[in-house]
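In this supplementary section we document a worked example of the pipeline. Step one takes a protein sequence of length 451 as its only input; no multiple sequence alignment statistics are reported here. Step two produces a three-dimensional model, which step three serialises into structure tokens for compact storage. The input and output of this example are shown verbatim.
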Amino acid sequence: MKTHTKNETTASPEEKLDFKKILPVFVIVLIDLLGLTIIIPLLPLYAASYGANAFVIGALGAAYPLMQFLGAPLLGRLSDRFGRRPVLIVSQIGTLIGFIVLGIANTLWLLFISRIIDGISGANIATAQAVITDNTTEKTRTQGLGLIGAAFGLGFIVGPIIAFLTLAFSDNNYHLVAYVAAGFSLISILLTYFWLEESYPPEKRGQKNAKTGVGLKAMFNALKKPQIGLLLALMFFQQFAFGGFEQLLSLFTLNRLGMNASSNAGLFVYVGIIVVAVQGYFVGRWSRKFGDRWLVRMGLLALGIGLLLSALTPARPVPWYSRADVTAELSGDVAHPGETPPVEDIQIDLPDDNNTGWIGLIWLGAAMIPAAIGGGILQPSINSMITQHVAPDEIGGTLGISAAFLSGANAITPLVMGAFFEWMGSSAPFLIGSAILLVLWMIAQRTIAKE
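The serialised model returned by step three reads:
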């Protein structure tokens, strides 16, 4: 398979991204991700309000990616056979149903059901990546895939703001936040149906993928391919390390800094601004100038350093922290009947409020810079390298397998890291993740093929 040559610093017309083709999928993914980013800062605290400990909250975080691990490869192959657009619509409908169930949830098991429904149909991002790949060249692919990440970053800016305002105007009604997320999911379905053009026409849909198969066998076969197997393994292990950070950040800040759902929403806005800058602008320039191999190595190092610094965040609650107020929010004492669910027993240790200050938040804010840069670089650069080593009619399926490895890591890491959080303290998941990433960085120096 032909690989691309080293990118030149100055882009020729053939190396420029066609934004007219990318704009519809960018907007649709952004709207779709608004639903997800509205609930991300809230979901761990939602579960904590039902008395869930860190391990159970980790299991809730694992439910979605575990189901996606099973469903994404199949949907990826189906998108190669039947087109990207219908598979994307089916996936978005599953997300809508999941948010509605989350909105009506009044028990912990319904929270699990909502994430399972969303996960089993969750090929939104993988299918969108396939659309991007259909409309880009090898030289513009990393930038195009980076725009998917930029949409995620914008979602992390706008989504948490919407969550913050919804919580503020509804006396912390967690259910209403879920319904707002469902509304954005519905908008994304309508945009996909009426605006998005099919990027993979029937004449390009060969019969090869009908013989390729899906499931564990297809994943093992992909692992056997030179470079593809290495890149898939790298995708899995970097996400295993980073997933604990993503899934447990809200619990970490609750335990270490006393930050509630609204405060965490603000933190996610800050991270989103960094990710948008990296994936919307810098990743394309860096890819053309230095190549994807450099991006992968730099991303591993930056993320490893960011997680290490995050783990060392001083245990100093934010200045506005009140233990009584946070306890009341989680227990539902300040909400109207039927809104924030009543707590059985808060299992997450809350800090004392007699030693508040800014140092903890400032430290974490600094640590999030390399963490967000590394996290923003890795997925688009690894996926770009993967697409350069497969045939065009295998791109959708291979990206589906990549998404499955990503989801597999996301399914395992909340359970493992949640257990470490519960048994060894809130810093343990980040320290372990940092060690994994720094080892991967050393391995990547020798094993990733030169461009």
